[in-house]
Amino acid sequence: GAALLFCAAGLGGAGAGGIEAAGKTLGLEGALKELKAEVTPQEIKIDLSADVLFDFDKADLKPEGKAAIDAQVVGKLAQINKLELVLVTGHTDRIGTQAYNQKLSERRADAVRNYLVSKGVPKDKIEALGMGEKQLIPGLVCEQKNLKEKIACLQPNRRVEIQAKGEATKP
To answer: What's this model's pTM, rounded to 2 decimal places?
Structure first.
């Protein structure tokens, strides 16, 4: 942040409500701009493969999934000064019914949210939602007859996206 220090000689004709710079009287907003202090929005987006986080068709975080969240997410969230929102979105592939995939994506998003809470991220700042198979990766074509091959081909659709928004004050 920026600290404003006024001394009697520095106020000129501005009075206590502002600061005089280049002959102009500025309000607090103007004074902050004059001191080049700014609050900048900060946003991060991280895509994690569901195959790293979870076993196929499961919503329990694997040890390597927790390690991936620790390495790729927790540290980055700590870099945001004033955390406003963390959006955790689960996605599935198209194998299975839409209703089943919707529930699976919700359970996966909840699992990631709960893990972030266990790492100190405030629960009231996290929103978890599942998209099921509604946002498939564009252009991914998987026509394999063999189920294992199709599952492997569709892997990019199985993911959890984490978006965080906040503010960083830069002097």
So the answer is: 0.72
